Structure to design on (234 residues):
């Protein structure tokens, strides 16, 4: 699904990504962990065609990132730190708008179904500006999946969510996985990473420091591996 070779990103004289090689198969759920400033969000933004790499090769779903950006944009749903929602619009209006943008058939029915799925049907017609952070995040999740993407790019998706919303989000990710959707999730939440990811990648100083399968699915094992790679604690 994703094939990255020798990817670099430089901004001013700072080397943000310093040679990333990464191959991700269709249907994998991959957690991207690493300290603040490691380059995780930058890597996600490159894949989401929002910033141009300085060097290397990236193909997504068989398309070349340099040439086929329009095709790639249709493939993924992206959940960044900011919600991308229109504040003065309601969840229904936002989701119908984004649904139409992606050419979703019956966008209104899809919007209503998604708002129900994230547990906010009661607020279907309230402007998003009146929402709490967690409520906004719930609608932002719905926005990212409105067009049923093949690839999900999630940047710290659990931040600000209550326990109910965490369960909803994890259910969404797992259900999409059953349909063959590939997920890349940047997170600082080891508990969620251990629970839902098949594979963990640790990014440090713009490079991949580790890439492994968390066989026992235990957060304590993940903590140990992370501390060893990032802090040198064994
Ligand atoms: N446009 C830019 N110009 C210059 N430096 C940038 C730019 N964007 C990001 N950086 C720098 O690149 C580094 C990596 O940033 P990035 O946002 O990818 O980190 P991150 O791993 O997502 O961190 P966090 O866990 O804090 O979200 C940081 O040092 C940041 O200051
Ligand atoms: Mg980040």
């Amino acid at each position: 699904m994703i094939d990255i070779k020798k990817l670099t990103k430089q901004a001013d004289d700072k080397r943000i990504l310093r040679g990333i090689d990464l191959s991700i198969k269709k249907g994998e759920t991959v957690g991207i962990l690493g300290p603040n400033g490691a380059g995780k969000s930058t890597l996600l933004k490159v894949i989401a065609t929002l910033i141009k790499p300085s060097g290397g090769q990236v193909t997504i779903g068989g398309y070349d990132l340099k040439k086929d950006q329009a095709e790639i944009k249709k493939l993924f749903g992206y959940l960044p730190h900011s919600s991308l929602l229109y504040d003065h619009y309601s969840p229904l209006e936002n989701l119908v708008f984004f649904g139409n943008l992606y050419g979703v058939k019956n966008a209104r029915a899809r919007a209503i179904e998604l708002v129900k799925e994230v547990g906010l049907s009661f607020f279907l017609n309230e402007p998003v500006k009146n929402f709490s952070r967690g409520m906004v995040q719930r609608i932002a999740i719905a926005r990212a999946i409105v067009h049923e993407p093949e690839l999900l790019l999630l940047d710290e998706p659990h931040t600000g969510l209550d326990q109910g919303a965490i369960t909803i989000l994890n259910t969404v990710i797992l259900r999409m996985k059953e349909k063959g959707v590939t997920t890349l999730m940047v997170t600082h939440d080891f508990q969620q990473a251990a629970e839902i990811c098949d594979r963990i990648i640790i990014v440090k100083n713009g490079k991949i420091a580790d890439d492994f399968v968390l066989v026992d699915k235990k957060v304590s094992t993940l903590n140990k591996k992370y501390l060893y790679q990032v802090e040198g604690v064994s």
Q: What stands out?
A: The first strand starts at residue 2 and ends at 11. The chain has one domain: 2-85+149-231. The pocket of adenosine-5'-triphosphate (ligand 1) is lined by residues 11-12, 14, 16, 34, 36-42 (CB under 6 Å).
